[in-house]
Structure formats: structure tokens, C-alpha cells
Amino acid sequence: MSLIDIILLAVALGIDCLIVSFSQGLIFDKKRLINSLKLAFTMGLFQGGMPCIGYVGADYIYDIATPFSRWIVFVIFFVLGLKFILEAFLPEKEKKCCIGLKCLISFGIATSIDALVAGASLNFTRTSLVSSALIIGIVSFIMSLGGFWSGIFFKKFPADYLEIFGGLILIFLAVKSVIF
User: Fold this and answer.
1) Is the overall model pTM greater than 0.85, yes or no?
2) In CATH, what is the architecture of 3-179?
3) What share of the chain is helix, strand, coil (3-state, %, to 5)?
4) Which 8-state DSSP code applies to residue 154?
5) C-alpha to C-alpha distance for 130 and 83, rounded to whole angstroms
6) Residue 106's pLDDT is what?
7) What is the rounded distance in angstroms from the CA atom of residue 171 to the CA atom of residue 167?
């Protein structure tokens, strides 16, 4: 994958972080700076760490999967893209104010499952793990901070459009993986 592809992947994966952080920004009235940093750090850490686990896990099935790697990458990104788009049409979940360690870890895991799967795709395309994980983590951190502070200033934000946009990016990367 090229640097542009990795950045696009990072943006697509970071959209969940942005939305969760946005919803938390709508709720918090006190200690905004420290809470935004806690949330953004957690999101960046999990988003950057999960691809490492997926990348290493993919090594165990690499020899079996290599002949089909382009199609595996296609299916993974395509399914993730469709998931993002379909979730945009589901009823909105109730927003919950939570910034404790347990909630932060839950948010981190919930928003980074897709990054775990993306890590396997990075392995199949023989993309550098370290630079990819750093880019994904940093982009997620920035998007999380942006989402939190946007939530403070906006009461209504078209989160559905962001999910659809992220899904389209993943589908684009899926198609690109089999064409080029």
C-alpha cells in the first residue's frame, strides 16, 4: 500500500473515534482539556496497537493465504466499508457520559476492532507495520480530539455522512487492491 492508501485507511478507521469523541464532547462540561486528551490518547493507542496484533496474527496463515491475498484484502475492506455504510442507517444509539478507565478501554476496543482486521490486510500487502500503525494511531488521536472539541461547539453533526464516507474509502481501497 502507498502512503496515500495508508492515510486513507487511517481516516476511515478514525471515523469511529471521531464519532465516539464527538458524542462525548456533547456531554462533558468540566475538565474538557484533560478528558479530551484522555479519550484521544486511548483512541490513538488502540487504533495504532490493534493493527499490530492483526499483522502478527496474519503471519500464522500467510503461507496458506498468500495466493488469495488480494482477494482477502478486497473482502476485508469491502465488508468493513459496507458495515460502515449500513451502520449509518441504523437508529442512533443512546449517548452515555463516561471517561473512567473501564469506559476508555471499552471505547478503545470497540472502535479498533476494524483496525485489527486492517492489520492483517497490511501484512498480506506487505506494507510496513511500524509506519502504518503510527500513522493510524496519530490520525485517530487527531480525529478524536477534533471530534471531542467539535461536539462541544455543535449540537447536531451529520455523523451518518462521516460513516458513509469512511465506508466509501474502504470500498475504494478494496477495489484498488484487486485492480492494481
Assistant:
1) no
2) Up-down Bundle (1.20)
3) 85, 0, 15
4) -
5) 27
6) 83
7) 6
